[in-house]
# Entry
Amino acid sequence: MNNRNEWPLWEVFVRSRNGLDHKHAGSVHAPDATLALQMARDVYTRRQEGVSIWVVPSDQITASDPGDKAAFFDPMEDKVYRHPTFYELPEEVNHM
Amino acid sequence: MYTQAMDIPHGDGKPAAVDDPARAAAFDERAARGEFVEAKDWMPEAYRKTLIRQISQHAHSEVVGMLPEGNWISRAPSLKRKAILLAKIQDEGGHGLYLYAAAETLGVSRDDLIDALHSGKAKYSSIFNYPTLTWADIGVIGWLVDGAAIMNQVPLCRCSYGPYARAMIRICKEESFHQRQGFDALHTMMQGTDAQRAMVQDAVNRWWWPVLMMFGPHDKDSQHSETSMKWGIKRISNDELRQQFVDATVEQGKVLGVTFPDPDLRWNEARGHHDFGTIDWSEFWNVVNGHGPCNRERLAARVGAWEDGAWVREAALAHARKRAARAQSAAA
# Structure
């Protein structure tokens, strides 16, 4: 029921410090990208929680369907050999 | 509590939507295993509705909660206290925004939520319908009101609905500052003159019972507790939380040097808890139903702020659209 000129929704991603990934923090309503950044700063970094912010229009995000979770992620389920712990090596080199 | 909506009669009289029984059963099992539910996951309609009601009421409470404190920004006793109060009020606004965003993940629009508040359809916490008569009230709000809120909110960090739980983690971190600054302000006053100490005691006397009411009705009178517990929306009952709060606060009161206006308040060795007197539930329902000291004033201030700001929201949107259209025609 978005019929009263509600400001569009933006998803907010914050990098807490250099060397770390941007992480989803939440969302804000804002009329444009510039104001979305300023509002995200005021809402999500009042205590210096960030050094960089990304804002993305929420309707521009394509997400996988949670209903398909089983089928979508299933192909990775039986490939235990992708993990280092799958391999039992001789004691002398097992720290490899 | 900020989430009193859980216990307040509601409903539009229509029968609840019927969920697919197999999916509903699978959902109940997930909840019993303590799994988190995320925004796009299938969920029973009653779960969705309960959460929308609770999260939006919580958001409204944060936003309306700015009003009693805003009363004192221009009269704070020092620049330091004014800066602290401004930061606290800004946090409350921020908390409202985290929570509105969490509620919106359940498929409601922000404007609809705000409409429900402004039309009186949605409730907010009863506590904000009491006036802030002196500067000591601001300290007591931090110490007792935010203290009670923290008691209720910490278990919500483990709520089964992921977006709500994440918002609560952020909020709880910030609330700790609110409670401590309140105690600090009162503690400073208690080192002052007799008049200042009397002012603190008077504020405690006025806020004590309304704060105990924040936890909502007794468990036996609480309407939705059982389902909310089953689904992991609520983790600890109203009476348990109230008891925890009384036990913690009585000790803090001793440090501060204030008493509580309850002749029946005493340590019960056998229970290992403090006993306390009977809460006046007629006052609670009176305030919840719109007849507290400040209900009308608070709602009028909220609606006024929303309406007075309408031209800003409209102008910003018009400007953004004009620029987008100009960019598009330049590219064409």
Q: What stands out?
A: Chain B touches chain A at residues 38, 40-42, 87, 90-91, 94, 97-98, 101-102, 104, 109-112, 166-167, 174, 313-314, 316-317, 319-320, 323-324 (CB under 8 Å).
